[in-house]
Design a protein that fits this description.
alpha/beta; 9-stranded mixed β-sheet
């Protein structure tokens, strides 16, 4: 069975900016989905901010193996309810790939627990991405480095937790460097952040970038059964303890009572 993938796009710049609309006439989200669908092992569909529940009702998320997220101008318009819904599914085992300016998306900041801030410059400069882990699955089939002729600069320091793995680092024409491909584990879910993707440049048409995204979907996919209610913190009865014990001392909670959250 193919990896069920949803590409979530903010879909704001494509409607308001002619440059973006000309580069991505069907939207960045559709361009990414089309690239993913060239792999027979991936089935990609799209969702956007403007749809009911942002296109991410619970039933759809429960059937999604990997979610890709691109946002920029409307992070604040994403409801907290949807953010918590996505976070719960990641903890339960859904993969998440956050793209470019999604570093400031509510869901990424929620899962990282840090400001996710950085330095930036929009000057259309050259970006050179270097592999820092040649044998990593996300880097499969890529050269030791590849270039994007025009990109927005992101520079260190990047306000993220120490990554599980750093797969790519970028050098920019102005001299800055950046950790451009980093992985995390959150609960049972695999999380990958990939930096390139400024909307006024044709980054998602680039063959190497598309290879990274297809590889990342396969890496983020967790074939294990989704964990049910990953946020639960049950009160375990004394009588079910593996070793016989007797209750003693004062108690704050009654048997079966939920704890404070």
């Amino acid at each position: 069975m193919s990896i069920r993938t949803v590409v979530w796009g903010e879909n704001v710049h494509e409607q308001k900016n002619k440059v973006v609309a000309d580069i991505y006439p069907t939207g960045m989200h559709q361009c990414i989905a089309d690239a993913l669908n060239t792999d027979e092992g991936i089935t990609a569909t799209t969702a956007t901010l403007q749809e009911p529940e942002h296109g991410l009702p619970l039933e759809r998320l429960q059937e999604t193996d990997v979610l890709l997220w691109w946002g920029h101008a409307a992070h604040g318009d994403v409801t907290d309810e949807i953010v918590e819904r996505v976070a719960e599914q990641v903890h339960a085992g859904m993969g998440l790939i956050v793209l470019h300016s999604g570093h400031f998306a509510k869901i990424f900041k929620r899962l990282m627990g840090t400001p996710c801030n950085l330095t930036w410059r929009e000057a259309g400069e050259r970006e050179r991405l270097w592999l820092t882990s040649r044998n990593h699955p996300i880097a499969a089939g890529l050269p030791d480095h590849f270039e994007l002729e025009n990109e927005e600069m992101y520079g260190e320091p990047f306000g993220i937790p120490e990554p599980m793995e750093t797969v790519f680092v970028s050098w920019f024409q102005g001299g800055e460097v950046f950790r451009s491909g980093v992985t995390y584990k959150r609960g049972a879910g695999n999380v990958f952040y990939f930096r390139p993707g400024h909307e006024t440049y044709p980054t998602y048409h680039d063959a190497n970038v598309q290879t990274v995204l297809r590889n990342a979907v396969k890496w983020a996919y967790n074939p294990a059964k989704r964990i049910e209610k990953p946020n639960d913190a049950p009160n375990v009865p004394v009588e079910t303890a593996l070793e016989p014990i007797e209750e003693r001392g004062p108690k704050l909670h009654q048997a079966g009572e939920e704890g404070y959250k």
